[in-house]
Amino acid sequence: MTTVVPTSEEDPALAVVRFTSELAWADAGPEVAEPQVNRLCMEAEECMAMNKWVELASLMLTSADLIFSKVAEKDLECIFTVICNLVTKSESPDEEFEMAKLISGKITQQPNDKPALRLKILFNLYNLLESPYSQFHIYMKALTLAFNGKVTDCIVPSFKKMDSFLKEWNIGISDQRELFLTISNVLKENKSSAKDSFKFLTRYLATFSGEDAYKMSEAKEEAVHAIVDFVKAPDMFQCDLLDMPAVGQLEKDAKYALAYQLLKIFLTQRLDAYLEFHAANSTLLKSYGLVHEDCITKMRLMSLVDLASDESGQIPYALIRDTLRINDDEVELWVVKAITVKLIDCKMDQMNQVVIVSRCTERVFGQHQWETLRTKLAAWRGNIANVISTVQANKVTEDSPLATQGGMMIR
């Protein structure tokens, strides 16, 4: 956080008003400029005397665009440090918010002019604020500035602390939606991992639950984007999209029903279903930017996972060959690919031509998967309880006064 250290007897705020006024009226000549500068300085003094901090901030920001274009970056940052420090004088959260909104509005007006410096000034302002909602407002301004000014690298690291920020801000569902969707778009602009962008897009979609159809409809296009992002990503093989009401609404939607059907194929069906879908909807897939060969590759891996979860721990080579529509000599290659991307753990029994599966990834993790996990945990718990009972029983026997020694019973 920047600290203002006065270097003269004049108040820093008044000094900024004087400097910017002189800059603004420099071309008018001394006779015109001097009265105007004095007038503005008197207005600033009146604002300070009456604690009218919002009016003072507005006065100081009058020449903001001129400051950005004519002042050196070091001096520019110093000027805005003084302006931003006005929020510390506010007497209520509402007044702080008004000033924060006013200052940030001016800073973000020209996002392509010195965007990194503007972003730095916004973060300085953020650190001076006490109201959580004011902080959230400035953070949203920073996201938009980073996106429009193409300096997303400066803000992406902060996303790691998002859960902590959400606790501090305590914002409502509507603000959360705006936040998650904006972050997802910033990550796309930043060319970050598709998984990172997808994660925040799904968090956005997950906020729609039990809403009326009108409210939910605003998420339709983003739901389709999420489906396309999932299908397109070569390293994503599991998601919860099918369980989300915002995605489920697409199933009977005249415009987007096919997108929902595509998602269902990738999460619940096998390669043959995809090939049949592609034969009837190849133009649609191209419009979504999906490459047929890439989809086949992903569906082969998804189909192999499906085989691993369906069979009783063993998958015949012939079944893999027929399901994935490959040659005999390609079977082990695809098994190795599935192992490499950590979809399955298995051993290949070449003698018996079977794959012995010890673990596989679930494509969806819904109610059925939770119930299966609960059953397994209950069985594991029971086994552990039996082991503990056996150990305790043996210990009691060993500690008994009737214990045997050297084959003889001691009475």
Outline, from the CA principal axes? elongated
How are strands sequenced across the largest beta sheet?
A: 1-3-2
State which percent range the strand residues make up: under 5%
Helical segment count? 20
Number of strands: 5
Q: What is the percent of helical residues?
A: 55-70%
Radius of gyration: 32 Å
Structural class: mainly alpha
Question: Taking all residues together, what is the mean pLDDT?
Answer: 88
The largest β sheet comes out as: 3 strands, antiparallel
Flag low-confidence runs. 1-7, 405-411
Order of helices and strands: HHHHHHHHHHHHHHHHHEHHEEHEE
What's the helix and strand layout?
Elements: H1 12-24, H2 30-49, H3 53-60, H4 64-70, H5 73-84, H6 93-107, H7 115-128, H8 132-148, H9 162-169, H10 173-189, H11 194-206, H12 213-216, H13 220-232, H14 245-248, H15 257-268, H16 271-287, H17 292-310, E1 314-316, H18 317-324, H19 331-340, E2 344-349, E3 354-360, H20 367-399, E4 404-405, E5 408-409
Antiparallel strand pairs: 1-3, 2-3, 4-5
Helix pairs in contact: 1-2, 2-3, 3-6, 5-7, 6-8, 7-8, 8-10, 10-11, 11-13, 13-15, 16-17, 17-19
